[in-house]
Amino acid sequence: MTFENLNLIEPILNALQTEGYTKPTPIQAQAIPYILQQRDILGCAQTGTGKTAAFSIPIIQLLHAQPVKGNRNIRALILTPTRELAIQIGESLAAYGKNTGLKHTVIFGGVSQHAQTQALRAGVDILVATPGRLLDLMNQRFIHLQHLQLFVLDEADRMLDMGFVNDVRKVLKVLPEKKQSLFFSATMAPEIMKLADTILVNPAKVEVTPAATTVNSIKQAVYYVKKSDKKSLLIHLLKEGSIDRVLIFTRTKHGADRVAKDVNNAGMQAEAIHGNKSQNARVRALENFKSSRTRVLVATDIAARGIDVDDLAHVINYELPNEPETYVHRIGRTGRAGASGTALSFCDAEETSYLISIQKLISKSVPVIDNHPYPMTAKDFAAAASTVKEKKRGGGNGGRGNWGNKPRTEGSSNGNRNASTGRSSSNGNRSTGSSNNGERRWSNKPKPSVA
Question: Where is this region: Disordered (predicted)?
Answer without folding.
Answer: 385-451
